[in-house]
Amino acid sequence: MNRQVTLIPRDQHPISRKQISTSALRVLYRLHEEGYAAFLVGGAVRDALAGIAPKDFDIATDATPEQVRGLFRNCRLIGRRFRLAHVVFGREIIEVATFRGQSDDGTGDRQVHQDGRVIRDNVYGTIEEDAARRDFTANALYYNIADFSIHDYVGGFEDVRARRLRLIGSPDDRYREDPVRMLRAARLAAKLQFDISPETAEPIPRLASLLTQAAPARLFDECLKLFLSGHAVRSFEGLERMGLLAVLLPDTAKALKSNSNGSLKAMLLRGLAQTDERVARGDSVSPAFLFSLLLWPAWCRTKAQLEANGMHAAEAQQRAADKVTLQQVHLIAIPRRFSMPMQEIWLLQSRFSQRKRVGRLVAHPRFRAAYDFFKLRADTGASHAEDAAFWASQVVETPGEQGETNWDIAVDDAPPRTRKRRRRSGPTS
Ligand code: ATP
Ligand code: MG
Known about the structure:
Layout: E1 6-8, H1 22-33, E2 38-41, H2 43-50, E3 58-61, H3 65-71, E4 75-78, E5 84-89, E6 92-98, E7 111-112, E8 118-120, H4 127-132, E9 141-144, E10 150-152, H5 156-161, E11 164-165, H6 171-177, H7 180-192, E12 195-196, H8 198-201, H9 203-207, H10 216-227, H11 232-241, H12 245-248, H13 250-258, H14 263-281, H15 287-294, H16 296-308, H17 313-329, H18 336-352, H19 358-363, H20 367-380, H21 385-396, H22 401-405
Parallel strand pairs: 3-6, 11-12
Antiparallel strand pairs: 1-10, 2-3, 2-9, 4-5, 5-6, 7-8, 9-10
Helix pairs in contact: 7-10, 7-11, 13-16, 14-20, 15-18, 16-17, 17-18, 18-20, 20-21
Bound molecules: adenosine-5'-triphosphate (ATP) and magnesium ion.
The site of magnesium ion has 3 residues, from loops.
């Protein structure tokens, strides 16, 4: 494929080296000194142009992974399917990828599944090809360390300026290749406050159900990025608008639909807004609390159904928790270390209206998270106001240990770069 490149010289774009981490600059300069092409690419360029501080830095080069390893002592190669170099500086990892090819020219070992998903590919290519296989034009901009210009093969520079997300190529094909791109569209639109261009938005409601084919572990990672990055409310609203919520959280979507007074949704949105506030303040956030919130409507609905069928309330609570969890993990692989505390948060809720065995509840390791959850419920539905006041007094009297653990249920989530799954080409499964 021959694409015309647009070069945006340093004096016509706002990216400065001050926005790039020193580690990334070191890698870029080293590659450049050795005569290799060295570009900053992807989210970092996009974010810097959009006026957001980039959080991780990806580099694209024409050096092979082995050549990259030869240049850096602190370098390891990862990935079997497509090899990448990670250059490690303490906690920071700079990912260096060799330009990847279109790989459908018979030279690689690309295999396409019947339904259009790419399941294997493994060839190096030119920078133009590397650009063409990225998802959105805004994600396919290359900042050249040689002269600080930006190389644009797909019109991404103009799209960022217009605050617009646009898929490269045929949107239908690109979503079929990798349905997670639909979630990425929703997430990046929420994060950047960009519009999704009409052609890129149009297929989403129609193809949303393809998401059920994505790898559940990848959907879990994607959920954390959607809801624990400071734009959870916008993410939720976008998912709902595009018909993705009903696929991602089907039981919750059904419950919200049948909740005529809207109280469940009000609570959910308030909880997500609080999550966003916590992220903005730099406070910890927890996947367990997040999923207890996202799946609460599903749990309430399932419990009510079981009770309507004559099951005793206490048993219905537990059974609903198991049922909702089981159904959801098929789609989103919520690890047990999060789904267990998520269930505990639900199951503790009924204890707050009993006010019995107060000391024991307060001493429960999940008390603080469950209390926060309860308060959220009380704040969005008048009926629990008195109970909430009672438990608030208990919280004040029990500072210390539980006091701060609140959302920190096993917070090893904040994905360090090593946990990130690289899926430029679509799922393997
Ligand atoms: P952020 O880091 O804010 O989550 P990002 O765009 O950097 O967003 P990454 O997952 O870090 O997301 O991906 C880095 C780059 O890899 C993207 O900018 C894009 O160019 C490319 N990419 C990622 N996922 C895909 C995909 N599913 N299809 C095509 N290209 C992708
Ligand atoms: Mg990134």
